[in-house]
Amino acid sequence: MNFLITISLFFSLPLLANDLKYSLGKAYNKDGKVVYIETHEYTDNNGTIKQLKTSYFKTDKKFFAELLSDFTISPYLPEYTFRDERFGRIDRTEWNTSKDSLMTFTKEDSEAEEKSKAFKPKENLITGQGLHAYLYRNLDKLIKKEDGTKIEYLIPKNQDKYNFKIKTLKHNQAENKVTFRVEMNSWLLRLVAPHIDITYDTKTKDLLVFEGPSNLLTDDKDGQNVKIIYQPGDKLEDLAKQAKGKKS
């Protein structure tokens, strides 16, 4: 089942208004090898994320994919465009002119025809990096909710939405860390479907670790599970500085 592979996401909401913030993540496969790097630039207005740019690079720093999200109309249903230059894959969302439907578009590769479908917004419907925005805004509430929280997650690539449950997996107050698990709401589907675990700093609300199916396929178009470790405040050029420091 591939509906979880597009929930791989990032971003940490800054605390200051109109700030431009950065973060860098290294994605490791099951063998502990770095398979790609992602960088993030995002802006905030009074504690609400407005725009976010995620760029993906090979380990040699060669760019190959990008995800642009705009939260101007909705905090949890952003307009976004994901492009993977390796295959010509495009997934995107766009509000219609009356703002009463979110249009989803998907194109598997450069040879495929674009598919589209409209969805009506509802209170618990989330898509793309809106999931992070939901976790951030409700961090304290989600930690306290022992029975978990139900959401619907919309995946443009699949032209469908799915019922998920968010629950607190671990809460380490001494280290100011909390890990949420996002999994299928149905216990039967949980037996066969993957889940994702997302760890935050409870004081800064920075995203620290993502574990689960990646939104990026391998070069052979296979799915992959990754563990992404984030370094809030870092940019791509900081990798060169770190490598230089290790050699000296």
Q: Could you explain how this protein is built, in words?
A:
- The chain has 248 residues and is mainly beta.
- It has one domain (5-247).
- Helices cover 12% and strands 46% of the residues.
- It has a 15-stranded mixed beta sheet with strand order 8-7-6-5-4-3-2-1-15-14-13-12-11-10-9.
- The longest helix is centred in the C-terminal third of the chain and has 11 residues, at 237-247.
- It is globular and about 50 Å long.
- 32% of the residues are buried.
- Residues 9-17 have low confidence and may be disordered.
Q: What would the average pLDDT be, to the nearest integer?
A: 87
**Helical amount among residues, as a percent range?**
10-25%
The portion of residues forming beta strands comes to over 45%
Low-confidence segments, given as residue ranges, are 9-17
Distance between the termini: 47 Å
Query: Strand tally, please?
Result: 15
Reading the helices and strands in chain order gives EEEEEEEEEHHEEEHEEEH
Q: What is the number of domains?
A: 1
The largest sheet, given as strand count, sense and whether it forms a barrel, is:
15 strands, mixed
Task: Please render the helix and strand layout as text.
Blueprint (H helix, E strand, L loop, with lengths): L19 E9 L5 E12 L2 E10 L5 E8 L8 E6 L4 E7 L6 E6 L7 E5 L5 E3 L2 H8 L1 H6 L4 E7 L4 E13 L4 E8 L2 H4 L5 E6 L5 E7 L11 E8 L4 H11 L1
Parallel strand pairs: 9-10
Antiparallel strand pairs: 1-2, 1-15, 2-3, 3-4, 4-5, 5-6, 6-7, 7-8, 10-11, 11-12, 12-13, 13-14, 14-15
